Amino acid sequence: MSEGPLHQLGHVHFLGLAGVGVSAVARLMHAAGVSISGTDAKDLPVLEEFRAAGVPVRVGYSAANLESIAAEAGHPIGTVVASSVATAGNPEYDAAAAAGCRLLHRSEGLAACMADKRAVAVAGTHGKTTTSSMTAVMLHAAGQQPSFAIGAVVAGFGTNAQAGAGDWFVAEADESDGSLLNYSPEIAVVTNVEPDHLDHYGSAEAVDQVFTDFTERIRDGGALILCADDDGARDLHQRTAAALAARGVRILTYGTAEDADLRLSQVQPDGFGQAAVLHHGQHRAALQLDVPGLHNALNAAAAVAVGTAAGLPLQRCAEAVAAFRGSSRRFELRGEVAGVRVYDDYAHHPTEVTAVLSAARSAAGSGRVHAVFQPHLFSRTRDFAAEFGAALDAADTAVVLPIYPAREEPIAGVSSELLGHPVLEPREAVVQVAAAAQPGDVVLTLGAGDVTQLAGDITAALEGPRAA
Length: 468
Prior knowledge:
alpha/beta; Rossmann fold; UDP-N-acetylmuramoyl-L-alanine:D-glutamate ligase; Protein-Tyrosine Phosphatase, Chain A; 3 domains; 24% strand; globular
């Protein structure tokens, strides 16, 4: 292992190893030659990948795991990298703290992986995963061999993290807990700014502030890329322009707005995907995408903007981003039976639900759109119930599952009924949607919880009656 920030960590033990964020950091450190190990509460498939690579893995948290892993590895544990849920009170975390191990949040571990690279950090209330995936694909197709760490498996790479030989490192920067402030990127992207995660921030003003603080983390002489179509991003532009200019940080905007620096025009469906034209100064380039929806055209424009900020030609970037084939749980095709297509998406905010249903409408053409939505968190359901209900109105049929609580306890008076659409248990939803879908229709499972499992169940249910 080469000298650098990672060299100082010693053996690194990961808590929540199967999680998408923690596993990304573990993959990167392992690729860099760091001795690693990890624990997770459940024996999920991703753990087998680490076992096959010779990484000591434990299932179920116990203070004794630290001793047994140190013995297996042949040296003591120097650092523990923990997910947002494996903190004080977790027996391994508490044991590591008592033993004097260095304790890092997942984002701090990722920051250490990026320290010697030219970092691109993609933030925003929505679109982070797709935009960072598109950016990694674009830089790779343009010959830049980037490293990346993203909150989903990227089609074409088959992983959510990869150590590349080039200078650039693309990372998804999560604002949900403020951990995006642990990064110091050369290029920062903010796709949009809207109230969310109010259980953590308490107010929309606090959400605005964390994005302002994020811009202060950009390296002097770097670049900030903002969506000109988003009011929150425009407000961020106004709040930070003077301070960024004083540090030599450029601001580059993108979108369909007439004043966007990198402007999208002539956006139109083209088969399953879409076509558009990108304008940047006197230059223009055709954009061809294999994913539907205006939101994805905007995400692609953000990725191209990163490329131009990195000094690559517009045409080369536009051609390179066309290599993007999707990310897991982002309008992911999970099955097709007798002309009915079943997609799964992580959308868990009203704006995201609206965007995905718009894309589904485009994909369905003359067919109908059927949505199965699972609200995520009692607090988010309380704060956005009316907005979720209005967003789901765009589907031809929409059913809602009981709230996925994740880390929260129930809140009195808060339930899925607040959304104003029929509420069904998962099995009932599968049966009803499968019975309603006809050839040419699109079925969507939506949400950040375990609703993703229903995509396969609906596909199987569609196969049953049609096979008979």
